[in-house]
């Protein structure tokens, strides 16, 4: 044998040119001839003699040579072995007995002269070896040579040892190639389809796995180094994740055949799973503790590409990738719209609001190719806050009008329709106040009515035109009675833009989102004061009374507390159901001026009770 590989030319039968029926006398003469020829060293000749004379050693030599071949066939095989003509040898061995064929092919595999075709032929030969035929052949020849016969257990054990040597030789041949993993992967996939329970295939994969250990250990050390460097807050994460992804490709190039084989046997390759666990821990740290969603997503995608054969983690990785894609997108949206969000939040604390400043930021944002619905909704939030909570419909109107008349962006059709309706309401609120202030000044009142007609709905236009006519007649001195339509339509309620754009908070965690389940909202715990909550009907744009608005405000605060208390998937499902129910009733509504601010004061006073309500709701799940 050569370096542990199977070597047909080192057989005692080849060295002494002996036949299977050679007896002790024949062997003695063959030894003398070999010594005279001086082709082999004396020590090798002596070892060959000893191997053929000792019954157990002889069995190893018998099964490792060319059993069941004639002298002419044996000479032809040795000629092809000497020439190294693999293709001719494969063709010649097609019709040879299976054990002889396996010995021929294993010899070539051990010399590095290996191909997919050779390995497939070798695996197939071992799958078809008939132990009984070999046992009969060897015992018949031993009877002629005067050696004791071989028992079945002896034959079975000897063949098992030979199978291991052949498998090692095949693995050595594969490992000598430029891209051993690529060839091995093809072979394993094909053989698993043909004969997944092959004993030789198992030995072959195990030997390949052993040879791959040094390379995998080096890759594992490099991955550990990347993880250590990534823990530094000032590290170049993009470069490190790219390096980790490249290392995973190298790992997969070597280890993929073993992963595939283990998966087919219902197991998971242990070293690959440890690599996965170390890198996923890095993903969790990047996402949960450092909000590095982009790099965490890239690394999770690389893990999913590398380890789909690890069935216990494949679904986890798919969930990770989906969750991180969502968080990454949210973070990018938040960063993209942060200047506009900051400008609008600053405007809420600075009155009178600088309309031109906010509109400039809005126009800059949408001009960069942003998602127009989000930008319009952010501005809409500010406009309705100014109208509803600051009682300044004029400024609110100017904000919405500035957005709608900007030629650089257009909202989607449905949102545009809503914004135009709200602009009309804001304009009416502004001008009706102005009409009251100008009471008695017929010219100013007439001009205000003209302004009202610009955005008036069809249902309002006739009344405004009648009012305009009365004012004109009054200006002409005619004594007529007229009245001012002083009733002002209800202002529009609005939920903050976070419901329109689900941007990530600073505490976003890295876990797959639970599916939303339509869970009925529980009835709020009885309040200790006389404040009454009434759950509004499902719908958008409805005018709510005080008790219904109270439900929306109070329930919103309960949900904020519940959000921080949910930890299990079941609790998340229940919480998502409450959110769906809340949004169906309270995402957009109208209310009378002053009602919302009054209810919000009540909510601040009842903050402790509302948090207690939230805890009771979670405890009931």
Radius of gyration: 43 Å
Q: What's the mean pLDDT score?
A: 84
Helix content range: 55-70%
Terminus-to-terminus distance: 71 Å
What does the overall shape look like?
rod-shaped
Weakly predicted, low-confidence segments: 478-530
Helix and strand sequence: HHHHHHHHHHHHHHHHHHHHHHEEHHEHH
Nutshell version of this structure?
This protein has 621 residues and is mainly alpha-helical.
Could you explain the architecture of this structure?
The protein is an all-alpha fold and 621 residues long. Helices cover 70% and strands 1% of the residues. It is built from 26 helices and 3 strands. α11 runs parallel beside α13, α12 runs antiparallel to α13 and α18 runs antiparallel to α19. It is rod-shaped and about 150 Å long. The protein starts with 11 loop residues before the first helix and ends with a helix.
């Amino acid at each position: 044998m050569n370096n542990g590989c199977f070597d047909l030319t080192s057989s005692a039968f080849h060295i002494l040119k002996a036949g299977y029926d050679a007896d002790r006398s024949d062997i003695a003469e063959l030894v003398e001839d070999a010594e005279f020829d001086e082709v082999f060293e004396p020590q090798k000749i002596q070892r060959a003699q000893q191997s053929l004379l000792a019954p157990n050693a002889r069995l190893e030599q018998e099964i490792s040579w060319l059993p069941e071949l004639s002298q002419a066939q044996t000479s032809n095989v040795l000629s092809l072995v000497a020439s190294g003509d693999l293709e001719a040898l494969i063709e010649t061995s097609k019709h040879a007995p299976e054990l002889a064929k396996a010995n021929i092919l294993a010899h070539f595999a051990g010399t590095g002269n290996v191909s997919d075709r050779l390995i497939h032929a070798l695996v197939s030969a071992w799958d078809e070896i008939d132990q009984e035929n070999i046992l009969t052949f060897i015992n018949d020849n031993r009877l002629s040579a005067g050696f004791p016969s071989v028992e079945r257990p002896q034959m079975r054990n000897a063949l098992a040892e030979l199978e291991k040597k052949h498998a090692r030789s095949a693995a050595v041949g594969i490992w000598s190639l430029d891209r051993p993993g690529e060839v091995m992967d093809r072979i394993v996939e094909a053989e698993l389809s043909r004969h997944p329970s092959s004993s030789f295939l198992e030995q072959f994969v195990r030997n390949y796995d052993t040879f791959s250990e040094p390379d995998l250990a080096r890759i594992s050390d490099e991955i550990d180094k990347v993880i250590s460097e990534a823990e530094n807050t000032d590290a170049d994460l993009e470069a490190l994740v790219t390096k980790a992804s490249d290392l995973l490709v190298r790992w997969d190039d070597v280890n993929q055949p073993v992963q595939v084989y283990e998966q087919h046997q219902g197991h998971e390759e242990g070293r690959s799973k440890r690599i996965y666990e170390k890198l996923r821990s890095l993903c969790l740290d990047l996402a949960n503790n450092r909000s590095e969603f982009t790099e965490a997503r890239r690394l999770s995608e690389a893990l999913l590409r590398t380890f789909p054969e690890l069935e216990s983690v494949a679904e986890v990785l798919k969930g990770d990738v989906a969750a991180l894609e969502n968080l990454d997108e949210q973070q990018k949206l938040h960063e993209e719209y942060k200047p506009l969000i900051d400008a609008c939040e600053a405007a809420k604390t600075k009155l009178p609001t600088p309309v031109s400043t906010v509109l400039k930021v809005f126009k800059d944002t949408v001009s960069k190719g942003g998602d127009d619905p989000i930008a319009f909704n952010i501005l809409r939030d500010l406009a309705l806050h100014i109208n509803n909570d600051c009682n300044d419909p004029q400024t609110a109107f100017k904000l919405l009008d500035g957005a709608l008349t900007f030629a650089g962006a257009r909202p989607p059709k449905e949102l545009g329709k809503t914004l135009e309706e709200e602009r009309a309401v804001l304009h009416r609120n502004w001008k009706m106040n102005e009409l009251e202030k100008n009471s008695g000044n017929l010219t100013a009142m007439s001009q205000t009515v003209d302004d009202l007609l610009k955005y008036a709905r069809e249902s309002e236009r006739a009344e405004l035109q009648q009012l305009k006519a009365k004012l004109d007649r009054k200006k002409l001195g005619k004594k007529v009675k007229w009245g001012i339509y002083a009733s002002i339509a209800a202002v529009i309620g609005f939920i903050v833009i976070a419901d329109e754009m689900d941007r990530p908070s600073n505490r976003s965690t890295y876990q797959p989102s639970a599916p939303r389940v339509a869970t009925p909202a529980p009835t709020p715990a009885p309040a200790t004061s006389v404040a009454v909550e009434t759950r509004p009907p499902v719908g958008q744009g409805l005018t709510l009374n005080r008790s219904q608005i109270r439900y929306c405000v109070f329930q919103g605060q309960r949900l904020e507390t519940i959000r921080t208390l949910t930890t299990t998937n079941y609790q998340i499902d229940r919480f998502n159901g409450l959110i769906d129910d809340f949004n169906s009733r309270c995402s957009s509504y109208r209310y009378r001026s002053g009602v919302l601010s009054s209810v919000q004061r009540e909510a601040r006073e009842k903050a402790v009770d509302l948090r207690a309500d939230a805890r009771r709701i979670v405890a009931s799940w």
